[in-house]
Write a structure and sequence with these properties.
single chain, mainly alpha, 189 residues
Length: 189
């Protein structure tokens, strides 16, 4: 029963995020925003949908039990959710599940974006690993972690290219790479 409640809450969370994203998309496009990465977006949606289906079937078919490490995994999960909320609220109307860029807008450098360029992708990566491990679904954890790495190897370069083309993205992060905090990079010069 806790499994079904937990998964239901996650699915509702995803659906609410899609509502927010759609509202933000409409607003941004009215302001002249341009969408990128439309070809791969459908595969992201498919991957996230399949994640819940595969997790459900692995849990039921193999009678997976709650991990003995559930308190640690729960703490990691809750921390990731806090970062998610922080990232979404920091971007405000610019947050989206799609790559939608408003030309010549100042790049957001507050909240978790002061530390990492793509906090939401970090959160998703953590979830795709931690949620299945929470319920002992090791096949789902491995499969979707690998699929996510593949997806992000396409998604992050597409997003960064779009941002470089339409904003002052490169100058906004002082040359730091994708996942290295800006504070650390200032000592590399």
């Amino acid at each position: 029963m806790p499994f079904f409640i937990f998964i239901s809450v996650l699915i509702i969370q995803r659906l609410l995020e899609l509502v927010i994203a759609r509202r933000n998309e409409k607003w941004m496009k009215k302001q002249g925003a341009i969408e990128f990465g439309m070809k791969h977006y459908q595969f992201i949606v498919l991957m996230h949908s399949l994640f819940f289906i595969v997790l459900f079937f692995e849990k039921i078919i193999f009678s997976r039990e709650l991990s003995s490490f559930w308190p640690l995994l729960a703490a990691v999960f809750v921390s990731a959710q806090l970062i998610r909320v922080w990232a979404i609220s920091s971007l405000g109307r610019y947050w989206n599940t799609k790559i939608i860029v408003l030309p010549n807008v100042e790049v957001v450098r507050k909240g978790p974006y002061r530390i990492i360029k793509h906090p939401n992708y970090l959160v998703v990566s953590i979830e795709l690993l931690v949620v299945p491990l929470f319920f002992g679904a090791y096949i789902t954890a491995c499969l979707f972690t690998l699929l996510n790495v593949l997806m992000l190897s396409i998604r992050i370069p597409a997003e960064e290219k779009a941002l470089r083309e339409l904003t002052e993205y490169e100058g906004s992060f002082g040359g730091c790479n994708r996942f290295v905090p800006k504070l650390l990079n200032k000592y590399d010069k």
